[in-house]
């Protein structure tokens, strides 16, 4: 698949990560960040267009104008972004999360007072355990 290069002013969002296409064992790598764009000024086309997988990030500082070069593996035939288009990325939702893991909690609440009481709220927290 072809790759394209997009150069942006630095700094960019630090959570954008690049992964190579292949690992040292030559098996396919999964979990790439996906780069999208929305055309600027378009009134009839405000939908996100997928460009492809982020496979490289490089800081460029030849002068006092630092930039970041993003290498993207293009997925199929796409319309390319233009200057002024809004670029963004998403994390792969199938990698790094495994749903709910762990134990089931059972609780029992009692009012030991003889007066009536009203329960205002009960809460719990769920934390991803696979990161």
Topology overview:
Layout: E1 3-9, E2 34-38, E3 49-60, E4 67-74, E5 86-90
Antiparallel strand pairs: 1-4, 2-3, 2-5, 3-4
Descriptive overview:
The chain is an all-beta fold and 131 residues long. It is elongated and about 75 Å long. The protein has no helices and five strands. β3 (49-60) and β4 form a beta hairpin. The protein has a five-stranded antiparallel sheet, with no helix packed on it. The protein has a domain at 3-90. It has strands at residues 3-9, 34-38, 49-60, 67-74, 86-90.
Fraction in beta strands: 25-35%
- The strand order across the widest sheet is 1-4-3-2-5
Give the SSE order as H and E letters.
Answer: EEEEE
Mean pLDDT: 77
Q: Span between N and C termini?
A: 30 Å
Structural class: mainly beta
The gross shape turns out to be elongated
- Helical fraction: under 10%
Model regions low in confidence, pLDDT < 50 over at least 5 residues: none
Entry summary:
By secondary structure, the protein is mainly beta.
């Amino acid at each position: 698949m072809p790759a394209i290069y997009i150069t942006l002013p630095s700094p960019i969002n630090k959570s954008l990560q690049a992964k190579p296409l292949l690992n040292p064992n030559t098996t396919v790598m999964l979990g790439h960040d996906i780069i999208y764009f929305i055309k600027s000024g378009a009134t009839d086309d405000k939908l996100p267009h997928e460009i492809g997988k982020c496979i490289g990030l490089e800081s460029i500082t030849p002068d006092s104008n630092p930039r970041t070069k993003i290498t993207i593996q293009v997925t199929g035939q796409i319309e390319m972004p233009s200057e002024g288009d809004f670029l963004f990325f998403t994390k792969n939702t199938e990698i790094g999360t495994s749903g709910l893991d762990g134990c089931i909690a059972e609780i029992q609440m009692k009012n030991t007072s003889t007066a009536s009481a009203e329960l205002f709220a009960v809460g719990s927290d769920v934390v991803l355990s696979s990161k």
